[in-house]
Amino acid sequence: MRTELKRSENRFSICLAGNPNVGKSTVFNRLTGLRQHTGNWTGKTVEPARGQWKRECATYEVVDLPGVYALSGGTPEERVAVDYLEREAPDCLVVILDATALERTLSLALELRQYHDNLVLCMNLMDEAERLGLRPNCAALAEALHVPVVPTRADQPASVERLRHVVEVACMRRRGDMPGANAPTGAGARDAERQTAEERMLEAAELAGTVCPAQPSPRRNWDRILLGKWTAWPITLFLLFCLFAITIWGANLPSAQLERLFSRLQVWLDVLLSGLSPAFRSLLLDGLYGTTAKVVAVMLPPMAIFFPLFSVLEDLGLLPRLAFLLDRPFAACGSCGRQGLCMCMGCGCNAVGVTGCRIIPDERERLAAILTNALVPCNGRFPTLILLAGVLLERNGQFHPLTAAAVLTGFLVLSAAVTLGSTALLRRTILRGGTGSFILELPPFRRPRLAQLLVRSVLDRTLRVLGRAVTVAAPAGILIWTLAHVRVGSEALLPLLARWLDPAAVLMGLSGVLLLAFLLSFPANELLLPLTVLIGTAGTVITDGGETVATLRALGVGPQMALCAAVFTLFHWPCSTTVLTVWHETRRWKWTLLSVLYPTAVGVLLCMALHLGLQLLG
Amino acid sequence: MSRNMAELRAGERGWVCALRLSPLRAAPLLRLGLFPGTEVQCLLRSPLGDPTAYRFRGTTVAVRREDAAGIDVMAERDANPMGWEEKQCAQS
To answer: Which domain holds residue A320?
Structure first.
């Protein structure tokens, strides 16, 4: 005790614990000012997040433990939580309670009393409880458990300030800086040790009954409509369709504007750099700048629209409901509805989706979900799919955004079907084994907090993904420019490579140019379109970006080839970041390799079959 | 008379009598507070028939049929047949 005091005299460690879906991450964010990604589903936080706040030369370090229901169950989250509590022995343990479901959340608090003697309870979601007609009595709870209880509300960020203050006092008191130092805070702790889980739950129920005797008034039951027998599927498809329609329709104009802006910038840069040698200038402008600008212009607008919309669905609590809807087909394929959630995350970014597979408890099911995640098109592949849909549908140079959204939804349904089939195949061959169970909490609907949501999705996700794409695009641009300008004999290297790939590509209904572009866009799927144009035109970047459908046409991409290319866009090797993530998640070269080979095999076979079919039909 | 949880109809309540599941399968349910004695309400079935959403201890939880079938309950209609019929009439 003495040494610890010396070592970190004004550093205090605080730990946040609580059930999933009690607004723990929100409290953490308000305490520390960090923007941790919150999501309304179980198993969001798997690794503990860290943050801190300072007051008067004292630093309070906060660790947000993963949400758990109990500590003895042995799930990965529970092991992380117990490990942390035993190893690091925080100064203060804050347990977040849900005022609308006291009984269940209290039982965790009772269990945590055995692990720690300096508890602070935070009664979160008080505003939601009041809407349901509940009035939990914090004072009564504090008296019964001999611990401080602080009510917090989602609609009043300032209420967390009180929590912060109480936690500071609790920390100081434990270190003996304040009077009443060795007060027996955990008087009941020793009794609690002998409690079984069942007894704890009964005690929690009794306690909840005295603290909050009122029954919640019935909520409006949206589930009856959202999950209803006849309404569920149309609503789901409609929401998906809306998501894409808004993204595509909203992204069109800013994309064109950005391209125009970038090409104007390029003219200025050209003037600015006129002192350099022509070859070097071309490398910088056409290679580095051109590719990067293209990637930004194509990617930024759809991402800036897609991610916030996706976050709204997340905040509302619709994603666990999607898992609930999808569980039956997934169960038939030897997986569970949680895989549906991972696929949704994969729509944003496959690397995120692969990480998200941690929410699947069964080892084999989780592996199957990881290996098939790249079969869902990520956000970076959407622009390509939309453009190919344009080539497919275009009449007289125009196509309606709604049609594109419908086609994209169709592509997504296809990819979901292939994912399901692949999961079934994997689960019946190399990943054979008993089925895990599917027990998932369906959280209550929560109103999304728009301001927080915008900041989070724009700053955290959009800029991070964009930053990654740019860091990859810039060197790739230089590499490709070099490939385009290095000459072998009388011909540049790129067209040569493209021609060399042509026979294989033709078998799959593609062209050598497209296949080479697919290969070279391994660092980031977003590069595919700019690359195709770059290779096809042998290194001269086309600056008037508005006519890319026409450009593709000019490169000989007809409707049939567009269809094959779209299928190959859906199913091919995952991008480098995703492959790296798979390795991190599985730690096995075998699975990493398979995660590359399997989607590729699917794509190649499907494309060849499709090409053959189209040939036979004429 | 004992029924299993999967036999509860949408909207019906029941009281858990026993869990006849392997420890591995029972653990997540116990963790959520589904013990003998707990009151459970069957909320609704997934449009494809499985899983089903149950409400207990203030939370809504989706449980598959195979798990629910291993949980014995005392159903509302058996515990209070008169009241159950009245409820049915009032609903229809």
So the answer is: 232-434+448-617
